[in-house]
Design goal:
binds magnesium ion, 38% helix, alpha/beta, seven-stranded mixed beta sheet, globular, single chain, binds guanosine-5'-triphosphate, three-stranded mixed beta sheet
Length: 306
Amino acid sequence: MTQHAGFAAIIGAPNAGKSTLVNALVGSKVAIVSPKVQTTRMSVRGVAIKGETQVVFVDTPGIFKPKRRLDRAMVTSAWSHAGDADALVLLADAQELVTNARGRAADDTHEIVKALKKEERKAALALNKIDGMKRTDLLPLVQALTAANTFEEVFLISALKGDGVADLFQWVADRMPEHAWFYPEDQAADIPSRLLAAEITREKIYLRLHDELPYHSMVESEKWEERKDGSVKIDQVIYVQREGQKAIALGKGGQTIKIIGELARKEMEEIFGRRVHLFLFVKVREDWAEQREHYKEMGLEFPPDE
Ligand SMILES: Nc1nc2c(ncn2[C@@H]2O[C@H](COP(=O)(O)OP(=O)(O)OP(=O)(O)O)[C@@H](O)[C@H]2O)c(=O)[nH]1
Ligand SMILES: [Mg+2]
């Protein structure tokens, strides 16, 4: 049988559940997830196979009206992946669209729909987070969105619970061109280990400190040392923007950073399948989001001044 392979980009407003969906499609964790908006900064590839078809799902940063430099880089990256993809899925938070129709997430979603329409870009719409929602609330939404004729197909899914995910996968798989597979059969993610390790720590920071330490942190794996016993020693730096944030990240007597380190280490050991010695350092660097070198580390282009 001939092989099919291609790229499917998942785009959407921040917090729609894109990373959760990519993890569900791939069947293992390739992208970090948190209740905060703008969790994903760089696009992550997750690989999944259906029959003779290999789909490379591209998780992208949320699309919204960007102001800061890092935001602009993230949104640019998301659109460029959409442009390159063989299949495109717009993911939207159905709960937001129904109960908070004038909210920011709904606004961002409508702007994306407009942009797709303008470019006459073919895409599927997946309404996410239908778990816990009433069908009667969903139907008018689906009707309104299909009436506009922008989408080839509309799916109702729960990325978290798995409902509808297989149908969406099938739709995507059917759109993959004839092509040899891009990755070996057993590869699920395409992200360098040190970058993934940094992402895992960032997820734990977001989960633990999402109210106190918004957005303004980044993690870099500075050292990666293979040990003879098969374990690895990883030194990571957490950059924050203020002294006060450093105190928050450390916590009383270093308690917070210790918990974050333990959670991150455990997950790294699971994912890498080996023992990990993780050392975390917190540094204040007020303008890290203005420094070119960090963008490369995050896999983003450094956008010019506005
Ligand atoms: N109830 C429910 N929650 C979901 C579902 N999918 C995702 N979530 C939650 O929504 C939040 C955001 O999920 P993410 O996967 O990080 O969303 P994202 O679109 O990747 O967000 P950004 O990377 O910030 O743009 C998390 O708290 C998820 O657990 C779903 O199907 N149902
Ligand atoms: Mg994400």
